[in-house]
Amino acid sequence: MKNHAHRIAGFCLGPAQQVHIQVVEETGSTNADLLARVGSLQSPVLLIAERQTAGRGRAGRTWLSAPGASLTFSLAWKFALPLQSMVGLPLAVGVALAEALAELGVGVRLKWPNDVLHEGGKLAGILIETAGVDGDTQSCWAVIGIGINLMLDPEMAAQIGRPVAHVPQLTERDRDELMAALLNALAQAAVLFERQGFGAFAERWNGLHAYAGQPVFILDQGKVLHEGAAIGVDGSGRFLLDTSAGRTAVMAGDVSLRVREA
Ligand code: ATP
Question: Separation of 125 CA from ligand 1 center, angstroms?
Answer without folding.
Answer: 7
